Amino acid sequence: MSQEVVTDVVCPFCGSLCDDGEIVVEDGKIIETRNLCTIGTTKFLSSQNGHRITKPMIREKGELKETTFEKAIKKAAEILIKAERPLLYGWASTECDAQRVGIELAEELNAVIDDTASVCHGPSTIAKQEVGLPACTLGQVKNRADVIVYWGSNPAHAHPRHMARYTTFIRGFFREQGKQDRTLIVIDPRNTDTAKLADHFLQLKPGYDYELFDALRAAVKGQPIRGEEVGGVPVSKIQEVADIMKKAGFGVIFFGLGLTMSRGKHRNVENAIKLTIDLNKYAKFVIMAMRGHYNVAGFSLVAGWQTGYPFGIDFQRGYPYYNPGETTSNDILQREEADAVLVIASDPVSHFPASSISYMAKLPVIAIEPHVTPTTEIASVVLPPTIAGVEDEGTAYRMDHVPIRLRKVIDPPPGCLPDRKILEAILEEVRKLKSKA
Ligand code: SF4
Are the beta carbons of 316 and 34 closer than 8 angstroms? Predict the structure, then answer.
């Protein structure tokens, strides 16, 4: 029996990309994780559970049947090449080289390529394009921040180690007392577990984020606010919190999907950034999106370098074109334009609106996915990859856009290849078929 402890392991689950994991491996199997939260632990242990797909499959007469890698690749390439408007979706939970090959494949197919930001922080990207982003790294937050705001985000559940590693509880170079040196402000319609830890909790009415940003901006500038409350928050509380923010040595606003996916969407984020810009007349203040999937930030960077656009990129014209609301996945599915879908590192059937899924279920779907999911249940072709950060190396970008190298901890099941290798094989087959046409 051989046992080893792999140290400095990066957790490939959420955008926090904690890099202090220790994984105990016995006879090639993960038996224990240390330092990780429950979600991160589950990601490592799920690599060897019974829901793992280890063989390529093609649907025949309504049932998925095991096949060879070569046949599954050929079938996937045939589907994509036959399609007039293929959609390549997902990309958030894989490493940057796979994303790079995916963009090459999209260009070769004149396809639309879109990632999960389309249904999460896409509005944040649009807002950034409008007004810029006063940003920093999580290391700066850890060492300097004395005012921390979580707005429309519940890290206690969604990013369980965020507060302990980077923001609220950790001791920093200039914040030696940890929590005692920091003020935690939470703004959310729900009294979340994060809100319960806050020094100041502003429980606004759902959908009133934009108005509350306006009120805070007015209070920061010393302008009067009419009425007794804004969005359910008393004006006296708004003024108190604005005062705390103005006096910060280093303040940071972290915002989540409560802001990007509620009424106002990118206008909410734009107003949040403008509040941050206003605050910089009085204090050092920055703002950061709480990215969910571990490399969703990576996709927007890789796509940005290669096409000039961060998500929802349409190659149908022979060059990259970007217009969120037109070239984004749900819009394309709901207009019933797509005629084939490749899904990678994502499970849209669990997350998209019913109207998108019912249309998608009529199309040939190729799923590159290590586990049985609702998406693999409707797929015509399933290709099982290795899991980056567990069975394969790669680069991912943390929510503050710091690149981090993922470690390989164990060997993958025999026959499973990295996402990038599967995509390269599809690309090669597509080019071969195109040259014969
Ligand atoms: S907080 Fe996120 S990155 Fe850190 S261990 Fe938990 S799931 Fe993994």
Answer: no
